[in-house]
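Reminder to self: keep the SMILES exactly as supplied, no canonicalising. Ligand is magnesium ion.
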Amino acid sequence: MVNVLRFTDVTYVRDRRPILDGIDWAVEDSERWVILGPNGAGKTTLMKLATANDYPTTGSVEVLDQRLGRVDIFELRNRIGFVSSATGRRLPASETVRDIVLTAAYGVEGRWNEQYDDVDVRQAERILAEWDLADYVDRAYGTLSDGERKRALIARAVMTDPEMLLLDEPSASLDLGARERLLQMLSGFAQSPHSPAMIMVTHHVEEVPPGFTHALLLRDGRAQAAGPIAETLTAANLEATFGMPFELSVSNGRYAAVAKP
Ligand SMILES: Nc1ncnc2c1ncn2[C@@H]1O[C@H](COP(=O)(O)OP(=O)(O)OP(=O)(O)O)[C@@H](O)[C@H]1O
Ligand SMILES: [Mg+2]
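Structure tokens returned for the bound complex:
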């Protein structure tokens, strides 16, 4: 067991408002965490700290055993895979899907004059096939549907063999079929012992991939509950987090929640 992330009494204050408040949280390499919470709870802010894209106001954040503020964050970011709507928007629409994945190996966001090794090209194509995009390698990234684009971004994020993979709302805006396919793939990835630690933000318990082991529920910047998923993702904790009562069911590892009448 290796610790990949450790937050100790972390606050993040902007405009004199605590956006994160007293967060204590640790993630080990074998764990797969889902983060749930209302709009504005602080989920994306937490992801920014966990990916070394921002610093806490007080408290300490250790990412892959390095304390933020004391390390070369560029070297650290190479060891982290991150997918969010913002990471997708930064990539050039005219680039081929193969190059979108390949450029990750060289730490760039668009192809310039790099010479790529055959071994990297083969790895990019193998990863794209794993994420069901073998037929899309020569397509321009900008022509992909939202669902295809999400899978291409995940392929890009895992190209560097990261020690931690973070996904901020990967299934937002996907249709039912695309969402279910992505969930199956994330579930398979989560259950492989070769996969890195995973942290996924979602708005819906229906989008928790089977195989995810832990949950963190955030409300108003505070951890309402955190721990192994079976004891954390409960109706009582959802009510405390979202401020309304739910009926929660679990079947074959899939969760469903509806408001209590
Ligand atoms: N740099 C900043 N300055 C001021 N306020 C900020 C800043 N960053 C985030 N916030 C505020 O902090 C709160 C938490 O934002 P964050 O994006 O982390 O929420 P979230 O849980 O990801 O929400 P959503 O589910 O809508 O994506 C929001 O009210 C947001 O407006
Ligand atoms: Mg967010």
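Points to follow up:
Residues 163 and 196 are 5 Å apart (CA to CA).
The pocket of adenosine-5'-triphosphate (ligand 1) is lined by residues 14-15, 19, 37, 39-45 (CB under 6 Å).
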